[in-house]
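Researcher: Can you fold this with CU-O-CU linkage in place?
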Amino acid sequence: MEALKTLFLAIFVVLASALYSANAKIQEHEFVIQATPVKRLCNTHSTITVNGQFPGPTLEVNNGDTLVVKVTNKARYNVTIHWHGIRQMRTGWADGPEFVTQCPIRPGESYTYRFTIQGQEGTLWWHAHSSWLRATVYGALIIHPREGEAYPFTKPKRETPILLGEWWDANPIDVVRQATQTGAAPNTSDAYTINGQPGDLYKCSSQGTTIVPIDSGETNLLRVINAALNQPLFFTVANHKLTVVGADASYLKPFTTNVIMLGPGQTTDVLIQGDQPPTRYYMAARAYQSAQNAPFDNTTTTAILEYKSAPCPTKGSSIKPVMPSLPAYNDTNTVTAFSKSFRSPRKVEVPAEIDDNLFFTIGLGLNNCPKNFNANQCQGPNGTRFTASMNNVSFVLPNNVSILQAHHLGVQGVFTTDFPTQPPVKFDYTGNVSRSLWQPVQGTKVTKLKFGSRVQIVLQDTSIVTPENHPIHLHGYDFYIVAEGFGNFDPNKDTSKFNLVDPPMRNTVAVPVNGWAVIRFVADNPGAWIMHCHLDVHIGWGLATVLLVDNGVGLLQSIEPPPEDLPLC
Ligand code: C2O
């Protein structure tokens, strides 16, 4: 009887979705991962790109479309591609993080990612999810409303993706390899970029500066993406107000600001009006740096907003664009005011009752030099090695099978399901933490969740080594951010302040420095989903974990079978 019911339900859903998606399209693309000469800051590097393009191709789809992307690896590194923010309902095999949902695509091999965009609209992006390859392997993924449907705001005349990136005057893979050997922090970048170009404030760069057109009286939708590897960034446009209308492919109640901040991984859609004297204005991005005593790239990247109607002598390089002012590097007050402005457009359905109540600390650590290591390998502070953890577990990826494959096939010994639901030791997380708590344990520990479970996760920053604003990203889900605050989260006094009416929905939350954020979601997508800090330097140190969501009842609540070309290790 149950089986029959499931069958009828399956037939019904298939028919209904066939009707509903009458005009949904299947888009096929080919991505060839290859080394390409790219010249920036006066020097040419053999840069890993997609199809020789840097940044990579922009994909534009409508909600409901299916993407089929054949990725062929012609580079000398292992690679995978992740579709950042795509929910991948039942298609976790196409998510991409290496050793979590697939083994890497080896040089010479290929893998085809297939997935359907379901109920998402706005700006996402794609990037490599293997070592530091995403420094140069990334691009925009823009999701328009279904054909015949409209934005919840007046349709802008123009739309421009603004990809903020981070450039090393070196091979980024060598930079991270050196840091892994020495245990020290990796070298900081040499430039930030807008659509791949550093802009006028860097050497040998004014030739290629990105130009963004606008006309008097028209609106331009800027789809801003922080694709930088390790740095949260402020972004602003001289003399123009920014009206924020969406983030991470979810709409927001519009609000107006002079400056936005994006952690790596985050996207923000802003409208700007051509309401200023027609000339040239800089848009600029530079670091928001919340960590203490840590070196960072303090340079500024620019692009030029150019009015089409600008009188001729105003055009061209002779007229210097107007430079905006940016917040101080450590201006946490501006970040707090900005993130407090985020609301969903209307009342939303936030889980009110919670089945899995989780509390995860997030932060750095220092490992004492292991016995078989020499001084060269322990060049972190006072002869240590940098590390990072969640709930005192420093995450280690498997190396011979992915977590999803091991789960699906029942391979034992790849991971354990004992990730702590609470910090194993409670302490004053944002206070002066005893040195004895700075050294996490290593492990491939996951959290099992039942299909349909209503989940709350408190993400609590620690001040170990340094407090820092960590952009925490969860794959396979969008979640509501119901509260944020500073200091230690206190359920007795903070729970009453939760916004369960119109909290914003995102896939990456910038957890306040020396503070906390609370997220809620329903575990309705079976699979192995990595949750990690989107500062790549911290992923390598272990600031990650995996949520393993079981299948529910019947086909429609179960992950699809793995594709035949899924790479093997
Ligand atoms: Cu945008 Cu796991 O990443």
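Model: Folded with CU-O-CU linkage in place. The first helix runs from residue 2 to 20.
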